[in-house]
Structures are given as C-alpha cells and as structure tokens.
Request: fold
Amino acid sequence: MPRTAPRRRAERPERPTRAGGRDARGSGSSGGSGSSAGAGRRWAVAVPHPSGRRKALIAFVVVLLALGGLVAGMVPAGPGWLPDVSAVAVATTYTWALAARTGGRPLLFGGLTLAIGVAVLVLDQAALRTGAAVLTCAVASVLAVMATVPARTFLAAARECGFALLVAAVGALAVVGLEPRITVLRFEYVTLGLALLGAFLVVHRLGAGLHGLGRRGLVTVVIGSAVLALALAYAEVLRRYGTPGLVTSLLDGVRWSRENLGAFPRPLEALLGVPALVWGCHMRARRRQGWWVCAFGVCATVPVANALANPAVTLLEWALSIAYGALVGLVLGYAVIRTDLALTGPRGRRSRRAEEAAAGRPEPRRTDALL
Reply:
C-alpha cells in the first residue's frame, strides 16, 4: 500500500482588524493608540449626491427667481442691474440643463456660460451683448424641444408643445434682458440657423444616426426640409421682388389681424414648428424616428424666443401671436396625426385603442439625461 502524507486542514484566513477595534480572537487593542491608529482598514465617508429631480428643482427655482427679476426690469422696478443678472442666470441655467439633458458636461458648460455672461456685463459692449443674446436664444430654443417627453395621445402631445413654448418664452425675456442691438431680419435668420444646427446634431445621436432614419423617417425629413426652404424662400422673394399690389394685400391682412385680434400668428411657428413638435412627440412614443420630426420643432420655439428682440412688438402682441400660432399648429398637428394613424395604424376603434395603450417606447424622464 502506498503511503501518502496525511491531509492538512486548510487554515482560515485571518480577518482584518479595524483600527481601535478587536481582532478575530476578541483581543482588545491595548498596544497603544499610536500603533493601532494607522493599522487596519480605512472607512471612506460617502458624500451624498443630489438626484436628478433635486437638481431640476434647484434649476426651476433659479429660473423662477430670474424670471421675477426680468419682469421687474420690464415694469420697471428694482435696481438697474437686476435684468442683466437675471438674463445671465437664465442663460447659465438653460445651458446647464441642455448639457445635462443631452449627456454632456453640465458643470463645464454652465460655468463657461456664467463666465462669459459676467464678462459681457462687466465690459458692457454692444457686440458682446448681441452675441450673448444670439446664443441665449439658440440654447433656449433647443432646450425647449429636448425637454419634451413622448406622448401617447394627442392631448399629451399638445401638453408637451405648450411646455416647449413656455420654456422658449422665458428665453425670450432673457434675450430682452441682455438689451442687444440687432438688425431684426438678420437676428431671426442667425438664431434659426444655429438652433436647427444644434437640434439636428443632438437628434443625430438620439436617432441612431442617419441609418436609423428608415424610409419613413427619410421621407419625413425631406418633406420638413422642403417646407422650411419654401417658407423662407417665399418670404424672401416676396420681400424683394413682390408686386406692390400683392404685398399691399398681404400687409392689409396682417394689419387687420393686429387691429381686430391683437396679433398675427407667425407663419413658421403655425405651419411647421408646432405641427412637427406635436407629431414628433406622438411618434416618439412608438418609434425613435420621431426625434427627427421633433428637430423641426425649433421652427416654433425660435420665433417665440426671438420675437421680443424686435422693438416694434409689444408684450401683449407677442403673447397673442404665440397663442394664435399654437392654436393653428395644433389643428394641423391633429390632422397630421390622424392621417398617419389612418395610413399606418391598425383598423377599427378597438385596435387603435389597443395600439395606443401599448405605445410606450421607453425614454428617460424629463429630469434625466437622454444619452
């Protein structure tokens, strides 16, 4: 019989001793406080980080206080520096919120915006104020679209559209608070171009790139781009080469609307921006191509954010034009949604209700990052 060595029982590893505590055998640390202070395991202190809702609440309070300062500057009431500081506060908070929503670095971009805003107020030059107003308008317009959430029903989509217009309206007051010196037409074109560029850059990531468009999304983007190009081209051609009779008749209609209704709805907001935002939020609950439709929603938020920069537009006329444009756009958006459901949705009332109940494409909450 072969002789084998007897098996040895595995020794248990010694438990780590805590500083100032007892070891595994229960012996106390009587060897002196100096020798036991550096020995053992160090316990890290956990620092609590605020949640997304708490950060959103803080941002909401800052914007609300800044809105009060902007309104006080329009009355006027309070010190003269109050509107300037409030405008910088809104711009900083909006930039921080947009970076947080799109998965960027909110502290970096928010701090950079704050530093630029302080430099603008200290130097107090017209060119710097105008540049800050342009960036504030563009950031507010893009944030208003990115802050929306998917909507299963038309009423929920209309609610999201109203929320986006409200965010853009606060940005409009911040633009006025910076007191820019502008050429109105150039200011409108520059802010619209920057907002469209920013929205499509973000949507390109949210919609999984161009290959995530699909045939349906590609057709939607082409139609939206064509409508935008035709609207801008028609307005420019009419302004430069329109016959006096046609221009006079159109101006008479605008004048009648302002005298009898108080304002005239902005065509770009009513015909493209609001319908695209309503339909896009409705589509996002079903497929991610809805983000490409929502990108054209800046055509509604930009006219809201830059309208008050025109000194000829009063506060009442601005508010009424937003309401009229939203009303017309909601009617068109409802027609587009019904047409979309009729062409691609299920047949029958029960099937449509089942499809609406099942529509729940997951997206982060309004206070969380999209990326």
